[in-house]
């Protein structure tokens, strides 16, 4: 089943169960001091769940563009090295706002996975919350009993607070959750060790696909729980993982979501995917990061030196660095992958198509300038590393690391990464000191607004609708009042 059809089948299924199908919220969050990027489907409904905004419909479903590269959910370092965590991914979700609860959420999850997609029960596991004395929350007997209608008892696993109690943040909506995991291993491996022992064990082929959250509490600032005015359901299923299972693959990157891009990367590098471990990691990193960067720009966030823009710049530089080091990409390459991505995803996400020209231009500029930095920085860093080793030291000095950062724009995590590969570390504490000293020095310098965003209306809710102008220095974003 093609990925576009898998997504559509999800939306059609929940539409048939009376859900309003809503568009994805932007991946870049503006006007919320607690969140830079959307990291779960429920973010856009937060105020409804808190009882601060009226619900527009009792049930909804969508596919949400998510980015997990900062804050509570940061998967960046896994990406490329494992086969099922992405920076940007689609989270398929269905919601009940004070409408249905555990019974229907579980029944429909089962009906969709087993009945519509045809996944076998023998390979499916459900986890339920074991309870927490500290919070006064009991074992989730209700969820357990509903699962027992569909799965044998030894496929229902009790999970702890870490895995089975969902919280939005320090405060806010929360509640027990029930997750569905799928075992993709070969028969022999399953016979040697049953799937129930592998759930939540970070095995790349026994993976979590769907999280059903039963939101019934609000965590108050003093840490205690209070019942929410209405009980809600919030679910999130990893679209790319679902595609992997339904397409009979063992890696998300082997699905039709990533293969076209990986094929183009392979072609441009003259290497084949699957032949060299390091080159494979680099191809996965680029195929993944390309999406994160393209969608961020489409949603109004350009790479920059501050806040969300800096996060995006770092993702882009990570991709460039992998391409440069392991695939021999010394010229801008990511920008050339944009048309293929737009062809593939522009139907579901028209913003990508609408901003294609801008996305290509911004990525190309970023790539060119970083490639220049990279060439100079790598030469310098090689010198620093040999000198450090020659002096019998294990750490690159804070002063050297700072000079690379300050004078050559070489990010500290990159210095660390390259140093680590050559067997030395970085004196981070000393680096931090240098950084603070520099901040002190520039404290009195004139304040310069380096943010990419120009607020045209002093309103909290605004929707990004495109860029009016793009020049080297001036970027003016256009907003529509909502
Ligand atoms: P994991 O334990 O695999 O890191 P999670 O428990 O952090 O996942 P949830 O917050 O429960 O994930 O999100 C709901 C679903 O979104 C998950 O069940 C998974 O299918 C998917 N998902 C989560 N993180 C990622 C990611 N980085 N890339 C792709 N899919 C993801
Ligand atoms: Mg996670
Ligand atoms: Mg998990
Ligand atoms: Mg989870």
From TrEMBL:
Gene Ontology cellular component terms for the protein in this record: cytoplasm
User: What is the top EC class of this enzyme, as a single word?
Assistant: ligase
Q: Which reaction does it catalyse?
A: tRNA(Ala) + L-alanine + ATP = L-alanyl-tRNA(Ala) + AMP + diphosphate
Q: GO MF annotations for this entry?
A: alanine-tRNA ligase activity; aminoacyl-tRNA deacylase activity; ATP binding; tRNA binding; zinc ion binding
List each copy of the Alanyl-transfer RNA synthetases family profile domain by range: 1-482
Q: Where is the protein situated, by its record's location annotation?
A: Cytoplasm
Q: What does the UniProt cofactor note say?
A: Binds 1 zinc ion per subunit.
Which family is this sequence assigned to?
Belongs to the class-II aminoacyl-tRNA synthetase family.
Record's protein name = Alanine--tRNA ligase
Gene name in the database record: alaS
């Amino acid at each position: 089943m093609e990925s576009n059809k898998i997504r559509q089948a999800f939306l059609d299924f929940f539409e048939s169960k009376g859900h309003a199908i809503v568009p994805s919220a932007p991946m870049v969050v503006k006007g919320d001091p607690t969140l830079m990027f959307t990291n779960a489907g429920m973010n856009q409904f937060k105020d409804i769940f808190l009882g601060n905004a009226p619900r527009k419909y009792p049930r909804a479903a969508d596919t949400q563009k998510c980015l997990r590269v900062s804050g509570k959910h940061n998967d960046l370092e896994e990406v490329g090295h494992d086969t099922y965590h992405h920076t940007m991914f689609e989270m398929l979700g269905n919601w009940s706002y004070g409408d249905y609860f555990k019974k229907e959420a579980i029944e429909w999850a089962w009906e969709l996975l087993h009945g519509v997609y045809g996944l076998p029960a023998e390979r499916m596991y459900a986890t339920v919350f074991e309870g927490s004395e500290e919070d006064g929350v009991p074992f989730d007997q209700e969820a357990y009993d509903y699962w027992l209608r569909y799965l044998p008892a030894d496929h229902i696993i009790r999970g702890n607070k870490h895995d089975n109690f969902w919280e939005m943040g320090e405060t806010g909506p929360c509640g027990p959750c029930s997750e569905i995991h799928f075992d993709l291993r070969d028969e022999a491996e399953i016979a040697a060790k049953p799937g129930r022992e592998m759930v939540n064990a970070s095995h790349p082929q026994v993976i979590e696909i769907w999280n059903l959250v039963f939101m019934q509490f609000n965590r108050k600032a003093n840490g205690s729980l209070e019942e929410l005015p209405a009980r809600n359901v919030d679910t999130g299923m990893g679209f790319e993982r679902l595609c992997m299972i339904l397409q009979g693959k063992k890696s998300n990157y082997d699905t039709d979501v990533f293969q076209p891009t990986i094929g183009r990367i392979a072609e441009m590098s003259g290497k084949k995917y699957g032949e060299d471990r390091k080159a494979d990691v680099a191809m996965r990193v680029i195929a993944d990061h390309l999406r994160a960067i393209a969608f961020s720009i489409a949603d109004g966030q350009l790479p920059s030196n501050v806040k969300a823009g800096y996060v995006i710049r770092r993702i882009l530089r990570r991709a460039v660095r992998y391409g440069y080091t392991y695939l021999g990409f010394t010229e801008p390459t990511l920008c050339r992958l944009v048309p293929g991505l737009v062809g593939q995803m522009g139907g579901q996400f028209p913003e990508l198509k609408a901003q294609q020209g801008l996305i290509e231009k911004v990525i190309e500029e970023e790539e060119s300038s970083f490639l220049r930095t990279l060439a100079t920085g790598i030469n310098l860093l090689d010198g620093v590393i040999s000198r450090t080793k020659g002096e019998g030291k294990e750490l690159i000095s804070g002063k050297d690391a700072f000079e690379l950062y300050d004078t050559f724009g070489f990010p500290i995590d990159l210095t660390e990464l390259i140093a680590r590969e050559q067997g030395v570390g970085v004196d981070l504490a000393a680096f931090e000191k240098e950084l603070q000293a520099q901040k002190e020095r520039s404290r009195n310098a004139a304040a310069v607004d380096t943010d990419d965003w120009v607020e045209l209306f002093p309103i909290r809710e605004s929707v990004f609708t495109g860029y009016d102008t793009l020049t080297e220095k001036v970027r003016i974003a256009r907003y529509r009042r909502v």
